[in-house]
Amino acid sequence: MAWKKPDWLDASHVQKVLRNHERDESIEVFGISVKPAVAKGDNYTSDMHRVAVEFFRGRNDRRIQETRSIIVKVAPCDLREEWIAGLGVFDIESSMMSATLPKMQEILGKFSPESLGARCLYYQIEKPTHIVIEDLTKDGFKMAQQQLGLDLNHSVLAIRNLARFHASSIALKEKYPKAIANYKKGLFDKDHPIAMKLWLNRSLRSLAKETTSWSELNPQIPEKLCKLSDVMYEKTCEVALYREDDFNVLNHGDMWVNNMMFRYDEQQKPIEQIFVDFQFCHWGSPAEDLLYFFGSSLSDDVRLQHRDLLVSEYHTTLTVTMSKLQCKTAVLSFDNLQAILKKRVLCELAAVAATLPVVVFEEREPFNLEDVLKTNAEFHHPGHRGKTYRKIVTRLLPLYNSMGILDV
Fold it and tell me: Domain residue spans in the chain?
């Protein structure tokens, strides 16, 4: 579907947003320019618009001119609409960005000055459902080059910030127990609309069909994948099920490369990372975020050589941050962290089947989520045909098979 600017996204609406956020009725917007904020196929649960704004405001008896860039995230009005509404993701994200995330940031305070996410300027749940946030590109943040996966420098930054995110959520729950009460459903929940089941099960079935011609694999593996595809979503929901007696945190919930931005120094080395897209935040095991990140976003070199290092970096940062924040919750031991990662490794396979092919696909053919949602449609994920993807997955699938997670 071709990009189209929403009719309601005009100077008058943007003026209302800025006046409300800055509590300044003198703001007069006289010009806006609206463009797509991300490439086609890079965002599935919303439509993203970058708005360049020109406006006047009164200050000390003077009328001064300013410019601003904002991001407007809009609930889709196509085949995805019913699915998105059923998920309630805009309610979750608006709550996260307007209330929960600022509290987490405040708790981190002087111990960790790095930002966890962008500021929310405005949100509206009634139609047209949308959220307005600050444009992080003005501060030098940008998306990483995703095709080869994140290298070690990017991955370490992301994993340390994830640990701070998790630690601050524990401190938040201890201080305000009700603050996380509404964050119950992540990507994998049995009560989600059937479209979520279709997304994962059809992605795995597509992978199963593609691998039948891969001579590198034992023929049993495609057969197992095909059988598993009938129940993959249900089994992943069981693995991800919240358990009160576990070590739990507020998960980002959709922890992959497209949901983070980085800032770089003059040598283009990443020096800061920030999260975007908080639509699937939920209280549960940190293994979900870690495994989804490992399965979807690492370069193969990092996946092969440095996975243990990333787990160690996460655990160290989590432990240190919880100590600084004086959390009463007992810290998860390193051995227990390794155990919960092994126990929930199906979450990693889910990312490998459904998200990794989007990340590494060489042709950059946009992935159309609507193709997955069409009833009774035969779905072939274009990313499963990629050479890079095949190289990675022919090594991973035998490993998963040896762990027994491909068996129904």
Answer: 11-74, 140-403
Q: Say whether 59 sits in a helix, a strand or coil.
A: strand
Summarised one tens digit per residue, pLDDT across range 363-402 is: 655 556 666 666 566 778 888 999 999 999 999 999 999 9
Q: Average pLDDT over the chain, rounded to whole?
A: 91
| Residue pLDDT, tens place only, 109-160 | 878 777 899 999 999 988 898 999 999 998 999 999 888 899 999 999 999 9
Q: CA 102, CA 66: separation in Å to the nearest integer?
A: 26
| Residue 201: strand pairing partners | none
Q: What is the three-class DSSP state of 266?
A: coil
Dihedral, CA of residue 333, residue 334, residue 335 and residue 340, to nearest 10: 90
d(CA 327, CA 177): 13
CB 348 within 8 A of CB 287: no
Classify 140-403 by CATH class: alpha beta
Backbone angles phi, psi at 68, to 5 degrees: -150, 150
C-alpha 344/C-alpha 403 separation (Å) is 11
Q: Which pTM does this prediction carry?
A: 0.93
Which residues, including other chains, have CB under 8 Å from residue 305's CB and lie 6 or more apart? none
Residue with tokens 């993959």: 232
